[in-house]
């Protein structure tokens, strides 16, 4: 079950959240025993510190959580969550949070409860939070459940999360929210989506295009997620050091599935479409080859200069399909390039768009949603880099410069009818554990997107 807020009861403890420069003032209002206890414990209200306060009969009467300085909090996505492991089991209500901080800290508390226990038993978090006054508890629980789904999908090994399992995950979502689903594979995929078929045809599990629809009123919103369930690199085989995390190469699909779930659970008045090209990029006698020229669904020809640049190929066919309906907003998400990680690191979600209203709304929502994004340029002079001469497009321009930008420019060639298009080149992985963010699969961008949708689509 996804983490939820606790119901208050007689055993609920007050957790006093105290900034470093506010500790002396708080102590002045306490009795001598409490002051002596805090001073003897060495509690300085540093970020991540926690201290249980003694009560009658050896039971705690409350607790303190250090909130540090503004400079320290600026370096942490969910500052309060760092104190949770040091608290005794039980339920807590917050007191003393700065104005406006409750939604972010409550979300961070819920997300800190995430456990991936498919392969190993992990005990549940025993510190529970009563929803702070004034927060939209139901919305925060939806966001948490959607992110937990995304994390589970990314964390699951490719042996258990191939194209068939990814399809089943979307089918479960369709069943939960009364959506429709259509899956294209076999001869129909080869003729209608030739690049998806070419990338996935060497794998044991057949490639497929998953197409979910939900909602019958409002603007059209189309989400396209890269579903490469494992990426060997194909005949341009990756070295072992680069292949170790390739179970997460379907992180774009996982993020769009999580975003779609949140949209449906919140009942947004949109006509939602979710497109996921699900493949494995494997090595066999029928693998697609360097030098091959593929004809895409849109009719554009693509020269294959590197079979390890396969994500843009499967996305291109799916984008071409989505674009045919001229949606009001189309968003692609993919763990597409290492160049994006070199540019902005693992913590930021870089995105590309020509839609200024979407950029403004997304950027404004990013901070309050604790979901950092960063706009990157569709740099027009680089268009020439993706035009090889022998075909319309090159899937892997030589030289390596601007790799994330050239990939985004490649994808944009398969749009044009959509009123707005945005592409997210995400990492979808937390390299080391941080407050509210366990090591492993991560949602990047959907919370900011979700908050931006009402303004952009006039919902």
From TrEMBL:
<feature type="domain" description="Cytosol aminopeptidase">
    <location>
        <begin position="306"/>
        <end position="313"/>
    </location>
</feature>
<dbReference type="InterPro" id="IPR000819">
    <property type="entry name" value="Peptidase_M17_C"/>
</dbReference>
<dbReference type="InterPro" id="IPR043472">
    <property type="entry name" value="Macro_dom-like"/>
</dbReference>
<keyword id="KW-0464">Manganese</keyword>
<dbReference type="InterPro" id="IPR048816">
    <property type="entry name" value="Peptidase_M17_N_1"/>
</dbReference>
<dbReference type="GO" id="GO:0004177">
    <property type="term" value="F:aminopeptidase activity"/>
</dbReference>
<keyword id="KW-0645">Protease</keyword>
<keyword id="KW-0378">Hydrolase</keyword>
<keyword id="KW-0031">Aminopeptidase</keyword>
<dbReference type="Pfam" id="PF00883">
    <property type="entry name" value="Peptidase_M17"/>
</dbReference>
<protein>
    <submittedName>
        <fullName>Leucyl aminopeptidase family protein</fullName>
    </submittedName>
</protein>
<comment type="similarity">
    <text>Belongs to the peptidase M17 family.</text>
</comment>
<dbReference type="Pfam" id="PF21337">
    <property type="entry name" value="Peptidase_M17_N_1"/>
</dbReference>
<dbReference type="InterPro" id="IPR011356">
    <property type="entry name" value="Leucine_aapep/pepB"/>
</dbReference>
């Amino acid at each position: 079950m996804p983490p939820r807020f606790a119901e208050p009861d007689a055993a609920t403890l007050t957790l006093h959240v105290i900034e470093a420069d506010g500790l002396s003032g708080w102590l002045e209002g306490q009795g001598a025993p409490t002051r002596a206890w805090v001073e003897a414990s060495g509690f300085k209200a540093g970020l991540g510190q926690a201290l249980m306060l003694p009560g009658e009969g050896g039971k705690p009467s409350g607790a303190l959580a250090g909130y540090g300085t503004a400079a320290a909090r600026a370096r942490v996505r969910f500052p309060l969550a760092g104190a949770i492991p040091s608290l005794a089991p039980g339920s807590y209500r917050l007191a003393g949070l700065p104005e406006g901080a409750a939604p972010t800290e409550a979300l961070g508390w819920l997300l800190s409860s995430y456990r991936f226990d498919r392969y190993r038993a992990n005990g549940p978090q025993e510190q529970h939070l009563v929803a702070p006054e004034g927060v939209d508890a139901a919305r925060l629980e939806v966001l948490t459940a959607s992110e937990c789904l995304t994390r589970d999908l990314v964390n699951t090994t490719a042996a258990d999360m191939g194209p068939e399992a990814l399809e089943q995950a979307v089918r479960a979502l369709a069943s939960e929210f009364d959506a429709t689903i259509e899956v294209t594979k076999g001869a129909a995929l080869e003729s209608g989506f030739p690049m998806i078929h070419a990338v996935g045809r060497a794998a044991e599990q057949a490639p497929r295009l998953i197409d979910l629809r939900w909602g019958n009123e409002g603007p059209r919103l189309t989400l396209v997620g890269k579903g490469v369930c494992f990426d060997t690199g194909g005949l341009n085989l990756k070295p072992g050091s680069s292949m170790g995390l390739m179970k997460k190469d379907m992180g774009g699909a996982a993020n769009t599935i999580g975003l779609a779930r949140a949209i449906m659970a919140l009942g947004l008045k949109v006509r939602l479409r979710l497109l996921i090209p699900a493949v494995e990029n494997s090595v066999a006698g029928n693998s697609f080859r360097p030098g091959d020229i593929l004809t895409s669904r849109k009719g554009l020809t693509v020269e294959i200069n590197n079979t390890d640049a396969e994500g843009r190929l499967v996305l291109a066919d799916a984008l071409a399909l989505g674009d045919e309906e001229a949606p009001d907003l189309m968003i692609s998400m993919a763990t597409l390039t290492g160049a994006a990680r070199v540019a902005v690191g693992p913590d930021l979600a870089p995105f590309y768009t020509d839609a200024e209203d979407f950029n403004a709304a997304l950027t404004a929502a990013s901070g309050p949603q604790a979901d950092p994004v960063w706009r990157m340029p569709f740099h027009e002079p680089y268009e020439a880099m993706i035009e090889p001469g022998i075909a319309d497009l090159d899937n892997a321009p030589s030289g390596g410069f601007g790799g994330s930008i050239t990939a985004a420019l490649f994808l944009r060639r398969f749009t044009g009818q959509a009123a707005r298009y945005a592409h997210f080149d995400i990492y979808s992985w937390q390299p080391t554990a941080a407050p509210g963010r366990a090591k492993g699969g991560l949602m990047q961008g959907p919370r900011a997107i979700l908050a931006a949708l009402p303004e952009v689509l006039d919902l």
